[in-house]
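Margin note from the TA: students keep mixing up input and output lines. Inputs are the sequences; the output is the structure of the whole complex. Example:
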Amino acid sequence: MLVSKNWLQEYVSLDMDQADLEERLTMSGLNHEGNNEYESDLAIDLEVTSNRPDCLGHLGVAREIGLLYGLKFRMPKPKLEESSKANVKDEISISIEATDLAPYYSARIIQGVKIGESPDWLKNRLQTVGIASVNNVVDISNYVLMECGQPLHVFDRDSISGNQIIVRRAVEKEKFHAINHKEYELSSEMCVIADANGPIALGGVMGGAESEVTEKTVNLLIEAADFAPLAIRHASRTLNLPSDSSYRFERGVDPKGIDWASRRCCELILEIAGGTLLSGVATAGELVTDREPITLRLNQVERILGISISPEEIEKILLSLELTLSEKDANKLVVVPPTFRRDLTREIDLIEEIARVFGYEKIPVDARVPMAASHKTDQEHIFDKIRLVMQGVQFCEAMSASVVSQKWSDAFSPWTDEGAITTDSPMLRGADHLRRTVVSSLLGSKKFNETLGNHQVDLYELAKIYLPQKSGAPEEPTLLSLASSRDFLAVKGVLELLLSRINSDLTLTVEPSEDDFFAAGRGCRLILEGELWGFLGEVSAKGQKLFGLKQATTVAEIKLDRLLKEAVLIPTQKHLSKFPTIKQDINLVVGESVLWQDLHKTIQASAGNLLEKIEFQEIFRAQEEIKEAKKRVLFSVTLRALEKTLTREEATAVREEICRACEEEFQAKLLS
Amino acid sequence: MALVTFTQRLEDLKESANADFQKATTQALVEEARVKYLGAKNGLLKEVQKELGKISKEEKPLAGKALNETKQALQKALDEAESQIRSGVTAAGDQPLFDPTLPGTSYTLGHIHPITQTISELSDIMGRLGFSVVGGPEVEDEDHNFNALNIPQEHPARDPLDNFYLSFAQETNKTPMLLRSQTSTVQIRVMEKTKPPIRIVSLGRVYRPDTADATHYPMFHQMEGLYVDEKVTMADLKTVMHLFAKSYLGEGVKVRFRPSFFPFTEPSVETDFYWNGKWVEYGGAGMVDPNVFRAVGYDPEEVTGFAFGLGVERLCMRRHNVTDIRDLYQNDVQFLRQF
């Protein structure tokens, strides 16, 4: 909020150094954000937190300065000269039909004013705080708003038809023609000020065009009211009508300040625009000005702050904040907060005030915080391992938004057929679907890289997806997703390496996937120990087109919960053989349809306990075999005994057993 | 075949092989010559060897001896050629200079996202201070995101326009759900399940509607710390913040509190660190509001606690001199390879 230095000086002397003032304000909760210099004034920009609406006016800021520097704060006392002849109540009556939206409403009337330009001092002050001058009466109501933080509204009395002001809920879809000359459609959650013909103002938010004060206006009705914060926020947000007025009502006004503001406004109008003030004030509703006393147990100050402050100091601080002492003994103080401090209702609120005024700089940084053990979670360990492996295989870690467009969401959803959860307002342009896979986001990133001319793109992301459930919160599994310029087997190798680093005993197999997001025959479900673990495949032409990709892409996605369960975080030593190995190359001729995965299983089962490892070498298709739909599979088996040197004969026996089993299972023929 | 013819052919072979091996100054040329002369299937020596059968029985031992000698000579020529290549010396006496300024063999590694690197550093530091990392759901109900955090119905933070409220395809969900707007929700979940003392940091993605620009993004990461025990004070909070700052920035850093306001802490402060000649705001902090304790079933007369929050992106950007937050989420590999 902008405050004028000249203006502040009406209530407190500002002889201190300007930089010191800014520093002290910042350190007591009014964060100094900058200054604007004017010819003869200085606008000081202060950030006011939402719990301190009392500082949304010059009086509140001046009061804080008085408190910080121990200076006298001068509160103006409006003096009104009222007409002895006419009473406002004969002229107008007020009825509140929606006390939940507007608990209190008051009106004063001034007759025979002369609308014109404001005097220079008034214009200058408004200019300093960033408000444009309109005419003397409107400027005065803005001036009072910026002085004490109480929003006011001034109507042209003669445009109000009838003698009654009704404060009510808007009728659903009721039309309202605002002072900005735009028409708005209202809802029944909003509060209107109405005359016999309909709304003349949207309570606490904006005046109406018809009752606006213009140069033709002669008689005025000055509104000072209290509106419910929630109703004001609803109206200003829904209609997109934020104003200085709504901003303050949303945070709550001082119930005792309402009549002060009304009187102050009338005083200035009479002084600057002339006219006669009808006696009295027309009101409706009630104002709660009584405050509950708060008990502060003195020992609680040290319990919370960790520093000792003397009871005298505590009492002095509370009194300087204009709280009144109602009771006191050795252990406690009972105090009543002023009406303008709505934020003070509990003991803890008082402790904060004491800390703030006493000074946080007096809290030391040498407390003896006890030591405590902390531990990394299994998930953190697994993430570390994954990142280490991914770094080794030259993938870059990506990070992308959790919410994607419908197009991306629909493109691929391997984990669920349930529709995606959507956000009520889009997160980024066109993105309102909570992702059910990370693959789409990575393909989007890959496309972005293609656009930039980056060709070798290998990305992975560790993130959650959001899978809707039948009821309640969605499931949020954590996934590892990959998108890469490399081919199917290259990406499969990454997953195999990763798996071997986390638990080398787990068996990964694949099953064909029919999803047309994958190129035909090149998409798979990944099965870990018989359970679905994830997906791997080369993106089909259709998929490539959807994301605008020109270069071939392989994607994979795996769920990490399974891995977490099976992870061997602390590997243990296995007894290793000291005897030499014998390696045997085996070249089998099998039918085209025989899969390595199945062959591998048979080799493993038939090799017995001398088997150390099986290594695939290559597949070769000789002309004559192609005709018979056959291929050669070359692999090697490494054999080793734990307790002795293996003999040629033993190795040959294993080899023969492997060949026999493969022949039985797959009609495989050993190539001589 | 006459023995002379046979030995002559061997001599010719030796001569031509010697010449070829001497000329072979690269590994490829040596290999080529090896295959040509000593190749197991079609090498020239093998060719000559086949002629051995045509030699008369009496002359065969002599022919065999000559064959062996030639074979050894060829092997010697091959060995020499190979060792010359290894030592860089050729028979011609030239010594091609080894150029040690040539680039080394190129290796590459992948890269870890700068946000992850920042998070790792933060959680490592907090780990050393006794705080363990906890996670929790990103889709939350209003109880955890607001009510338990002392954010009542009329609080502006609950405005639908300031949150990502969610719609479900299956309209079975009765309670409104939203993407969490702070990771304090995790602290509530931990306190609901665990008795004090508690010393945790909750880390993860949070969501607030903001138009994406250089300094704003509707999704970002937060790290929030919570310490609850019988005698936790604001002096403990300031001390822990100071220790954190010393670990993260370095010795000599100063810490200060400025009054602020958050619904879930009272008193509430902004934490500034003084580093490189200026005060910089790092995050909000405060003493856990008694209402928060009541909401999770703790007695505020028995325990006190502090909480603090840091925006990970802001720290990451400051640390790596990233000027546009959107760069962090576009995954340009050229960008990512810098970290």
